[in-house]
Write a structure and sequence with these properties.
- The complex is a heterodimer of chains A (659) and B (327).
- Chain A has 659 residues and is α+β, with helices and mostly antiparallel strands.
- In chain A, helix 5 runs antiparallel to helix 6, helix 13 runs antiparallel to helix 15 and helix 19 runs antiparallel to helix 20.
- Chain A has 21 helices and 20 strands.
- Among the domains of chain A are: 198 residues, Dipeptide-binding Protein, domain 1 (Alpha-Beta Complex), CATH 3.90.76.10; 234 residues, Roll (Dipeptide-binding Protein, domain 3).
- In chain A, 38% of the residues lie in helices and 17% in strands.
- In chain B, helix 5 packs across helix 8.
- Chain B is globular, with a radius of gyration of 24 Å.
- The chains are: A alpha+beta (659), B mainly alpha (327).
- Chains A and B meet through helix 1, helix 9 and helix 17 of A and helix 2, helix 5, helix 7, helix 8 and helix 12 of B.
Amino acid sequence: MGSTPKVADAARILRDVRLLAPFILLVVALAAAISLDRPLPPADLVIIERSDCYTLDPQRMSYQHELRRARVIYETLVNLRAVDCAIVPGVAERWECSPDGRTWTFHLRDDARWSNGDPVTSRDFAYAWRRALLPDTAADYSGLFFEIKGGKAFFTQRDERLKKYAERRKAGTATLSDLEQLWTETVTDFETNVGIKTPDDRTLVVELETPLAYFLDICAFPPFAPVHSATVEKFVTHDPTTGRIVQRHDWTKPGMIVTNGAYTPTVWRYKRDMRLERNPYYWNQAATEADSIECRTIENPNTGVLAFESGGADWLTDLGPEYKSEMLAERRAYLARFRADVDAGLARGGDIDDIVGALPAPGSGERRDVRGFDAFGTDFFSFNCREALPGGKPNPFHDARVRRAFALAVDKQQLIDRVTRLGERVASTLVPPGSIEGYPLVEGLGFDPSRAREELQAAGYEDRDGDGIIENAQGERFPTVDILYSTASPRYQNLALAMRDMWKRELRVSAECRGKDSKLYKEDLKKGNFMIARGGWYGDYGDPTTWLDLQRAGNGNNDRGYVNPKLDEMLDTARLETNAAKRLAMLAECERWLFTEEMPLLPLCNYVTVYMYDPSQLAGMSGHPRLEQDLSSLHRRDAAKDAQDATRGAARDTGGGRP
Amino acid sequence: MSAERQTIASLLTQRLVQLPLIVLAVYTVTFLLAWSIPGNPLESPEGRRPPAEIVEAMQKQYKLDDPVAFYFDYLGKASGVSWLMGTHPEPFDLGPSLKQPDWSVNEILGTGLPVSISLGLAAMLIALSIGLVAGTIGGLRPGSTSDYLTQLLAIIGISLPSFVIGSAILMFFAVKLRAPAIGWGGETVFESLVRASFPAFTLSLPFAAYISRLVRFGMIEEMSSDYIRTARAKGLPRWKVALKHALKNAFLPVLSYLGPATAVALTGSFVVEKVFAVPGVGQHFVDGVLGKDITLVMGVVLVYSTLMVVLNLAVDVLYRFVDPRLG
């Protein structure tokens, strides 16, 4: 009898515990799930990016951070040396060009290897370039491959063949053998008609449509990188409905991907991190600093800064928060304190990072771990150059005099000092100064309000009745200027508002700012539904044409609807010029004419990219105006080695980065 | 007993029959909304445009030129019907992401979902612990200083947006104290748990606040009811009455709140995920909507709506066990 209460007690306790059991189980499972997720082991170099790579397929990529990573994962025929943007041998150890400038022969090095040990052959290049030319791949940069003889025709032919096949398929007359034939025809077409030939494994011969002065620069562009054809081909299937080849992208995943660059991705967790490890078969190990690189993705700009400040990262590639101008001011305060040391170091030809890194640590209200660089990009506002606006309303900006007037009335320095506040360089033309070897400095229209009013008067607009508002000869008021901008960043709203006030003050025109979400903004831009709209452009390759071609009639990025046969003719003539200096002079003349006479757009300034890194910890950053950074040459400073460098007074080419 | 089992069984069948219908309705509405987002997912809002032929080719490839075909094609592949019919090699294929061609929606959810679920559940556990303690303290002594204090904290928890609290936590713990707080996972179990605790705590605050108010109100009501007075009259100590009897009943409204709250914690964690750089599903979903990545949006909504229905079902089943009146 005495034992019964005890049993009952035990049962009650058990029941109580049983009620708690699911919770305890949940806690244990949760703790297990959370702790199972391991970070990567520490890498030699840790960078923080604001977005992850969308793809590791070199033919399909187009974003700057992707291209930067691709430059160390894949190696192109020739490489672009980050420090001075010179062309140096890559997979090709030497090359020659025919006297007419149209045929290039590349001799591939013997020791170029894929990360699985296979030799890199000319056929890997031909295969990759064929992918880029297939409409099936939908490569953003197919256009660059159209420079190759027969490239465009191949693309168009394939597209037409596919359309025909799809129609026959719909009608039910296409069979599987037709599908096979479709592909065989395409391959034969490529081999016979496109100017990409592989006489042997070590030789690649490329024939161009016309001479192309910057062809080598393009060859160093990651979309021209080879892919390991055997691996990629494993994921290719032919879609019987459309006839297209379907290329599954699983080959870009670690474990599967085969690369020929300095590094191979070994871990890739989407929008989280990617780890690059030294490719043991890469021929040029001596030029590779870090053994492993970790690329973290932190989308929130503020968290990116906090993550850098909490330690563990070497480089934050894009400082995002709005307070970056305050951070840059703290750097200026720090440099001001050591102005004499910095100037003396620079006079000796030293690298700004080496000099700043060797200075005493910053005090409060100072910092040296941010640095603004002039980027290979230009911020501008587009004028709508079409004759009429959507809906048939006349467009005053069709008249170049009106465009010039609006350009002359903008005080860009004031916009930079008061609005953007990143210390950008004022731009009066598109091509950033100093970014292209041998290209002269071109000056466009500056700030000149009285000339602006004269231009507007010449266009027929002046204040005729003394009411402070300008009219044309018929007495019609100058229409309200519609300024379109994207609301993605407050920068453009602030710029639009400031310019609206400048135009109101200097030209007595009324303007309205219309902010739109970036997708709607882009739709309006394409439809030409604006008078003045926010724009901007980053150069793709080291030639002025990457900028000037934007104004060509029919260019897909000519949002301005600017059409002038004279420009197309000037560009076409320059293209055929084989003397490099003469050709650049012709292009410079073309740019000067564009930005003193035509004004299809209003350049404001060159973009500034702000990096966050501590120059006393990290070395190898390039300040060249094209702002290409080579991940394989960035490295943490070794205190002993650095002291040695300092005593030797090692002078390095530093390019045009600002202190 | 058998009657109770019967009800649960019929409840289960009824809900499981409803499930595909609800998910189909959600799918259709989401599809219409996602399709009407302006813009073209195959073009990046910033930067250069591929040639028109390329965009056209891609649109064909993804069936973006034909909404009806897309609707049925995607539905068939996602639901596994195409797989059952032998026209598609995989079941439950949510398609390739339109914006990130190297990743399928299944892969993106496969890596993000466990993280978001862990974070959401951890936040609910923290919210329950804080809410129960704070609510009980306040409810036992309404009007006291401790009651006002917990109520004040609850108001702060509900009203301060999580990006403010999150940033403040990061500034203090990550930057000042160098504690692991950004990202996810750790080299040791301890490090992982510490790292997860910051975003989980931030995410838990509004729920903790709400739970504490529910419990406080319930406690006040229960403590003044007849059966409690009887228990006290029989000489049971106050704490035993409160914890063993009153809390049990005061907890019931919390239980019914837990289902939808857990769903909100799982789906609504994107702000916290962004602030703490937690690699969950939330950021993918937001980026998907902003970029009109239709397949990604549809995939996330399908998985989440299924999860919601299942969670609500789980709460209803639990309720039947806890509240004998419903059994």
